């Protein structure tokens, strides 16, 4: 089989000097998260990004499928350069959202974060984040799996429910140029893990909190409830004022945010 050219090889000069300078491209793989998971904690794996043209078994939160036609999405997993304290693992999806939102803004694509791990464009899902880790005592080796819809493809509205958004709804973007911007922002924002309160406030700002309306479906329930998000709690839970005026705190595994 003829080897496909690496579309990311030309990024080396742009990323030189950052802590995310190494990219490993695969035209097709089952999942970049699976590939990265096997490397977590291995010598030399820190700072590596695995990017795929197509994932045959991509997955989102709670095992939900993330499948996209070849080259229609930017699909990658970046391994953080250094391990994090295990107690800080919950910060990773919120940090990832801030990184990707900031990079997209450089191209004039204004997104809103939706708890716990999505970015929306005009109310539709544009990107999702999924963290993976290998915990060794008080340290955790971490990968950030990210999927971003780039180019709208035929039947996208019918195949995905609810219908997604794509970068080219706003402007065409090439995967390598967007990945370079994301990795540069990731390098610039690595210090945010040392300031968790400031990181929470940054995420709340891009999530339009306080006041953002939510429809939340509790696990095991048949009907969602509505409310306004008031703030993010330490640990990643969301504080919500329900439509009846009561205030509840919902954890990451307790509810699903609906669009």
Per-chain topology:
Layout: H1 12-15, E1 22-26, H2 32-37, E2 48-52, E3 73-79, E4 84-85, H3 92-106, E5 112-114, E6 118-121, E7 124-136, E8 139-149, H4 156-159, H5 175-188, H6 196-206, E9 213-218, E10 225-232, E11 238-242, E12 247-250, E13 255-258
Parallel strand pairs: 1-2
Antiparallel strand pairs: 2-3, 3-8, 4-8, 5-6, 6-7, 7-8, 9-10, 9-13, 10-11, 11-12
Describe this structure in words.
With 259 residues, the chain is α+β, with helices and mostly antiparallel strands. It has two domains: 9-206, BirA Bifunctional Protein, domain 2 (2-Layer Sandwich), CATH 3.30.930.10; 213-258, Roll (SH3 type barrels), CATH 2.30.30. The chain has helices spanning 12-15, 32-37, 92-106, 156-159, 175-188, 196-206, and strands at 22-26, 48-52, 73-79, 84-85, 112-114, 118-121, 124-136, 139-149, 213-218, 225-232, 238-242, 247-250, 255-258. Helix 3 (92-106) packs across helix 5 (175-188) and helix 3 packs across helix 6. The relative contact order is 0.15. The mean pLDDT is 92.
């Amino acid at each position: 089989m003829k080897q496909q050219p690496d579309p990311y090889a030309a990024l080396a000069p742009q990323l030189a000097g950052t802590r995310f300078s190494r990219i490993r491209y695969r035209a097709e793989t089952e999942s970049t998260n699976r590939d990265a998971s096997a490397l977590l904690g291995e010598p030399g794996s820190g700072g590596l990004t695995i990017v795929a043209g197509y994932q045959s078994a991509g997955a989102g939160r709670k095992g939900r499928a993330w499948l996209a036609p070849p080259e229609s999405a930017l699909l990658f997993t970046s391994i953080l350069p250094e391990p994090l304290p295990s107690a800080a693992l919950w910060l990773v999806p919120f940090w990832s959202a801030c990184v990707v939102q900031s990079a997209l803004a450089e191209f004039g694509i204004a997104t809103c974060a939706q708890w716990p791990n999505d970015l929306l464009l005009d109310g539709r899902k544009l990107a999702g984040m999924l963290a993976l880790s290998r915990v060794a005592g008080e340290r955790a080796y971490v990968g950030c799996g990210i999927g971003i819809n780039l180019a709208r493809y035929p039947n996208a509205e019918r195949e995905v429910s609810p219908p997604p958004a794509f970068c080219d709804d706003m402007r065409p973007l090439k995967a390598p140029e967007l990945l370079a911007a994301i990795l540069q922002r990731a390098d610039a924002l690595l210090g945010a893990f040392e300031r968790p309160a400031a990181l929470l406030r940054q995420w709340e700002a891009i999530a339009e909190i306080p006041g953002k309306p939510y429809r939340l479906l509790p696990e095991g329930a048949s009907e969602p409830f509505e409310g306004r998000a008031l703030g993010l709690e330490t640990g990643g839970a969301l504080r919500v004022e329900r439509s009846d005026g009561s205030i509840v705190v919902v954890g990451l595994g307790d509810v699903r945010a609906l669009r």
